[in-house]
């Protein structure tokens, strides 16, 4: 499919696609620089249509106008041009012919990727080696499948993971958390899982429970289980280090077994996170996985949680480096520092010179969240014997095998709601299909007041079509769970959640295809219409699989929305009325209670009469939505199993139906 030519002078390689003759890589355009702490290689690009290179906030399609993207895991509220929580050195490029290819640099060091208008691209990393994987597609779906053949296919989530999740920081007590659950049930609004943020802990210490405010948590969890619902709580990797000896087992035992990140002097590196001074668990050490499991087993005996939310795992530190700063030397002050936020590798994290079991933190920093997710998923399997549910903030390639991701501490603003769509679609490219943003926004910044009813209604409509759908809010803000709003808004939110629940068989089947062969779940339009240039920059709409088009309202004060409808016949999801598009922008009616959904011709969607939990929905009659093509054909499929057992596909404990 390709030809590869080496050039001695100027030194470099040329990679061509044989069928079209397109030059995919040409590294002779600039010298290769290959030093221990500075590696640089540049290439020309065959087009300007470049995607991927996470984690950043921005449009789905990158600008090549001298745009530098830095990859170094960092705790910061998503802001354009900053390096964010995860690192994904992978890009997808659409060639002028409509063919696609992908490039993955397997390297965990701090790096920057400079995009140039030529069009060209420069990789610049400060460690490791240049280990490139090229995926030739030629279709974008196939590029992503090929990428996941290298990094691993995503885990199959339990069915309940695809229900609606509700959370906030600042419920203040287990009784208040319980009140919210009861209000949701009272209004018969679908909810599969209730979460708690760090306020459930005693002094923000992992594996503890506030004995006053959260004394009734075990009873709440029991009640959730009785109602077919689940409980998820937060955990941070920073372990409180200042308790009297003998009073806090996680730290005492971790210290005894030598499981924390150490300074160059061989003492635990001490930083500061929510509980105050903390040591940081070294998840590159297999013994740490055992200690993590033991801590979780002890806590689970008291509070039988169902899933875990791992946060602050960049790792985040309220100090730069440690309480003693960082020592001089080429790890903390390398000859070249990429354009990281804070201009230093230790900004709001630990020292790059910190010692871990496998290597120095300089090499392992971007892998921290992945290693913690691995330990957490394994522990959940051992404790519950069922499919694990983990949501992680920091991520790296292959993360999808162990966890999903949420897009971090967003704001309650229209702009943030829009940016969640390119965020979602980028993580689809990264092999992490279980992804979503905090619905209605996490915090309100720079304005007075909290999320508006209109914004939250529109966001619940969009969020009902995030693969991972969770409404989350910060402390000291007005409540934004559905019962907190007017009857009209509450009803609109309930209706769109019922629509999601009716589509769970379809969504679950998409996740099966992701697990089996690396298909995307939330999908950019250009994946299905790669030769339609109009789709290449679209990131205000998306598809579920190949056949369900979601066109959300992303601005205030409107009762219509304009969206692109690709060529073909599309059916209104609710009414079945059809539109035959030549590939054009169409204005659609969108009153506040309505989300536009269209079914593509030739599709068959399996649906189910919805209830308020996925468990109750499972028992209901199934029904098919058949959208005939112009030639009167249609196709669809359904994967069905018990929704939570491990390896059902691998062991043959499932039904697979083709319609």
Low-confidence stretches: none
In CATH, the topology of the domain at 236-406 is named TIM Barrel
The percentage of residues in β strands lies in 15-25%
SS element count, helices: 14
Could you report the average pLDDT, rounded to the nearest whole number? 97
Shape: globular
Tell me about the largest β-sheet. Answer: 9 strands, parallel
CATH superfamily caption of the domain at 236-406: Glycosidases
Q: For the terminal residues, how far apart are their CA atoms?
A: 34 Å
Domain Glycoside hydrolase family 31 N-terminal: 48-112
Organism: Antrostomus carolinensis
Protein name: Lysosomal alpha-glucosidase
Domain Glycosyl hydrolase family 31 C-terminal: 518-605
Summarize the structure.
Among the domains are: 145 residues, Immunoglobulin-like, CATH 2.60.40.1760; 171 residues, Glycosidases (TIM Barrel); 144 residues, Golgi alpha-mannosidase II (Immunoglobulin-like, Sandwich). 23% of the residues lie in helices and 25% in strands. The protein has 14 helices and 36 strands.
